[in-house]
UniProtKB/TrEMBL annotation:
InterPro entries: BPD_transp_1_N, MetI-like, MetI-like_sf. Pfam families: BPD_transp_1 (PF00528), BPD_transp_1_N (PF19300). Residues 111-341 form the ABC transmembrane type-1 domain. The chain crosses the membrane at residues 20-40, 117-138, 150-171, 214-233, 320-344. Keywords: Cell membrane, Membrane, Transmembrane, Transmembrane helix, Transport. It is found in: Cell membrane. It is a multi-pass membrane protein. The lineage of its organism: Bacteria, Bacillati, Actinomycetota, Actinomycetes, Micrococcales. Its main location: membrane. It comes from Microbacterium marinilacus. It comes from the Bacteria. PANTHER family: D,D-DIPEPTIDE TRANSPORT SYSTEM PERMEASE PROTEIN DDPB-RELATED, DIPEPTIDE TRANSPORT SYSTEM PERMEASE PROTEIN DPPB-RELATED. This is ABC transporter permease. Belongs to the binding-protein-dependent transport system permease family.
Length: 351
């Protein structure tokens, strides 16, 4: 009798297994984010019932009891959490006590506004930082290196809110070369909502006048955020490039007579890409979740402004919605960074 040959199962790609592990971890972390957000929000001192109903209506026992029963606030905390999760799975984050609209509706307009300035700021910061950081590393100890280090130190030291106020005062109030607050001028009609990003939506709508106005309003907030972010990225890129410059394969590339541009692009920046990718992910997450002061100065209707108004008015549904969005932002960024790690470095896939 001849033995029946056994069919071998196709080997799973190391990258696929790596991504599945990271995806499973992200799901568990997301559940943890909902737990922490819910608990911290419910531990906030104050009376959310009075904040929701107002001082007059909250003094009426019948009205107060009806509100508590309707929102499930008379249930144990664990029951309230599962009620919150059941609504979350349906896409229901509750109704804002400030705007009176669904929190999801408010976030659909606030999140794209913040993404617009954060993406523009991180792209501009990364381009400038790569140039300055690489230049400082190649000119280590020389005048160019000293100038770059001083500029980055100033960028890291200047408070963001002060820089935003000075920029607004100088470029708008004094020089009149930049528009005022908001995403567009009062005379410009907002574009039809497709992505929520005004610049993209104006392009899709073919409105050149609106696009130029949106870019003009975008300039100052992006400039302020970029100046702060450039200071962080440039110093880190300089350190990473210095480490790669002392490696054997860079010295071998120089010995072969390769051109400077080819060495920088093909060897130096590629070798320093993983640590740079990490700090860029952290910086981008900080831009998306920490633009409260800049948005307040320029009256930018983004996530930071919405978070501030919700916290100031004890709008617990709004606060929980913002906390959840910020947590998801960091999880998504970390997952994308892990994905790029696995693509750029095969050794990471086996970790």
């Amino acid at each position: 009798m001849t033995a029946t040959p056994t069919r071998r199962r196709p080997a799973r790609s190391p990258l696929a297994g790596y991504l599945l592990r990271r995806l499973g971890t992200s799901v568990l972390l997301l559940i943890g984010v909902t737990v922490v957000t819910f608990l911290l929000t419910n531990l906030v001192p104050g009376d959310p019932v009075s904040a929701a109903l107002g001082e007059g209506a909250s003094q009426n026992p019948a009205t107060r009891e009806a509100f508590i029963r309707e929102r499930g606030l008379d249930q144990p905390l664990i029951v309230q959490y599962f009620l919150y999760m059941s609504g979350l799975l349906r896409g229901d984050l509750g109704r804002s006590l400030v705007t009176g609209r669904a929190v999801t509706t408010d976030l659909q307009s606030a999140v794209p506004a913040t993404i617009e300035i954060a993406v523009a700021a991180i792209v501009l910061s990364l381009v400038v930082s790569i140039v300055l950081g690489t230049l400082a590393a190649y000119r280590r100890g020389l005048v160019a290196d000293q100038v770059v280090r001083v500029v980055t130190l100033v960028g890291l030291s200047v408070p963001t809110f002060w820089l935003a106020l000075v920029s607004y005062y100088v470029f708008f109030l004094q020089l009149r070369i930049a528009p005022g607050s908001g995403r567009t001028s009062a005379t410009i009609t907002p574009p039809p909502t497709v992505t929520g990003l005004y610049t993209v939506d104006y392009i899709l709508d073919g409105d050149g006048v609106g696009l130029m106005d949106a870019l003009a309003h975008l300039a100052l907030p992006v400039l302020v955020l970029s100046l702060v972010t450039v200071g962080l990225l440039t110093r880190f890129i300089r350190t990473s490039v210095l480490e790669v410059l002392s490696s054997d394969y860079v010295r071998a590339a120089r010995a072969k007579g390769l051109g400077g541009a080819r060495i920088v692009l093909g060897y130096v920046l590629r070798g320093a890409s993983l640590p740079i990718l990490t700090v860029v992910g952290v910086a981008f997450g900080s831009l998306l979740s920490g633009t409260v002061l800049v948005e307040s100065v320029f009256a930018w209707p983004g996530l930071g402004t919405y978070a501030y108004n919700s916290a100031a008015n004890l709008d617990l549904p709004g606060v929980m919605g913002v906390g959840l969005v910020v947590g998801v932002i960091y999880l998504v960024i970390n997952f994308v960074v892990d994905l790029l790690y696995g693509v750029l470095d095969p050794r990471v896939r086996l970790a």
